[in-house]
């Protein structure tokens, strides 16, 4: 079977997977209409399952039309470091010692802010935590922000449109908030070493502009949501008082999280640290809440599926990327990011020989600015969906609602990178 046919089949399956993400909410509704097959429809309605499911379909089709050894060889040739890293960092960042420490710091700042505490808490969750992603990585920032904002904003009582606006702001702010350093944002990681972009370069060319956009987006969203926020602080408002976590336990968790972040490119190292974390969490179970293993595994499955499906799209993506002028490249990257992971897009750009400095900037700027438009646009987005979807109708996040909610924040981010 020719490689060209396999490429076209892979592109068709990728298109079907994209369509599936936009119709996932309909499958969830079918599960209520046909309870006999509710399990199957509920499975197909899980956004995190979509790309993993269709990646399996792709590998099976490759085995049928080609050979089993070729299909297995392709699957094993893909780099799964990012899905593994996101899985590990989600679980550790959402552990009770880490989460409660960050929430306590946010609570202190919120109480001394010159505005109502709920407003300050929501604003910090939408602005400060995404910017913190430049230090602790975007997946960790997404996890912490989502768990902080869930009881405050993502509740059934809040209108769906406002929740989608908050979700769009969160996704866009996390996508651009990690650009103040050269290691925290996946699309920047893909090009930093190749193009010799260090953290000083990133802050001077991207970081401060991103900070302006993040603050503006968060301020507008908080103002719109001001009447929907709980009258009491959201942190811990629905949970009974928990005993304080010993400082020694917090330090161990923080140390392990730091080790995972520093070894993000070395799965042997961060998986070893993760196993140490699991052992420590079991040993001091009284200081833990249930680990979010299920949610993190689903996100890892989603991203691994995207790695498998995305690896077969280079044949049409790279000519598109390489054939555009810098300004067209910015808007092209902004649009293409909605249908493919922005890290994959910048990686393809790093393979282009002789690309100009202006084109490099425009490619990365467009890729990170569009990182909130869809669930697949940025690696941390599935983590946010997994943690926040229970607050939406049918407990699913609609692709159309997310797109509409993210349009305004995306325009702000794009304008910051284009004109500042």
User: How do the SSEs run, as a string of H and E?
Assistant: HHHHHHHHHHHHHHHHHHHHH
Q: Average the pLDDT over all residues and give the rounded result.
A: 84
Question: How is the biggest beta sheet arranged?
Answer: none
* Inertia-based shape: globular
How many distinct folded domains? 2
In terms of structural class, how would the helical and strand content be classed? mainly alpha
Report the radius of gyration as a whole number of Å: 21 Å
| Amount of beta strand | under 5%
Number of strands: 0
Quick overview of this protein structure:
72% of the residues lie in helices and 0% in strands. With 420 residues, it is an all-alpha fold. It is globular and about 65 Å long.
């Amino acid at each position: 079977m020719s490689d060209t046919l396999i490429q076209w089949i892979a592109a068709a399956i990728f298109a079907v997977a994209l369509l599936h993400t936009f119709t996932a909410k309909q499958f969830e509704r079918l599960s209520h209409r046909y309870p006999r097959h509710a399990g199957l429809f509920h499975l197909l309605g899980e956004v995190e399952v979509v790309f993993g499911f269709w990646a399996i379909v792709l590998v099976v089709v490759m085995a049928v039309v080609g050979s089993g050894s070729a299909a297995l060889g392709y699957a094993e040739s893909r780099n799964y470091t990012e899905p593994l890293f996101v899985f590990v960092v989600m679980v550790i960042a959402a552990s009770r010692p880490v989460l409660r420490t960050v929430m306590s710091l946010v609570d202190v700042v919120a109480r001394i802010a010159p505005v109502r505490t709920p407003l300050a808490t929501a604003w910090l969750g939408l602005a400060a935590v995404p910017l913190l992603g430049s230090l602790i990585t975007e997946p960790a920032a997404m996890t912490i922000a989502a768990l902080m904002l869930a009881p405050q904003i993502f509740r059934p009582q809040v209108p769906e449109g406002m929740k989608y606006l908050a979700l769009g702001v969160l996704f866009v702010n996390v996508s651009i908030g990690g650009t103040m350093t050269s290691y925290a944002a996946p699309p920047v990681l893909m090009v930093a070493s190749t193009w010799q972009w260090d953290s000083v370069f990133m802050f001077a060319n991207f970081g401060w502009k991103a900070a302006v956009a993040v603050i503006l987006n968060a301020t507008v969203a908080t103002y719109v949501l001001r009447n929907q926020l709980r009258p009491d602080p959201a942190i811990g408002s629905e949970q009974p008082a928990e005993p304080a976590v010993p400082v020694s336990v917090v330090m161990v968790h923080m140390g392990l999280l730091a080790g995972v972040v520093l070894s993000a490119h070395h799965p042997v190292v961060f998986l070893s640290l993760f196993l140490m974390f699991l052992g420590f969490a079991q040993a001091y179970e009284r200081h833990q809440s249930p680990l979010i293993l299920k949610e993190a595994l689903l996100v890892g499955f989603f991203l691994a599926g995207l790695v498998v499906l995305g690896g077969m799209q280079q044949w049409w993506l790279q000519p598109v990327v390489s054939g555009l002028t810098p300004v067209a490249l910015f808007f092209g990257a902004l649009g293409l990011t909605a249908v493919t992971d922005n890290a994959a897009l910048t990686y393809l750009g790093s393979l282009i020989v002789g690309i100009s400095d202006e084109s490099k900037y425009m490619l990365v700027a467009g890729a990170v600015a569009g990182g909130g438009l869809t669930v697949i646009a940025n690696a941390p987005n599935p983590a946010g969906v997994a943690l926040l979807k229970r607050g939406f109708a049918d407990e699913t996040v609609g692709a159309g609602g997310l797109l509409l909610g993210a349009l305004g924040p995306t325009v702000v981010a794009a304008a910051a990178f284009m004109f500042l």
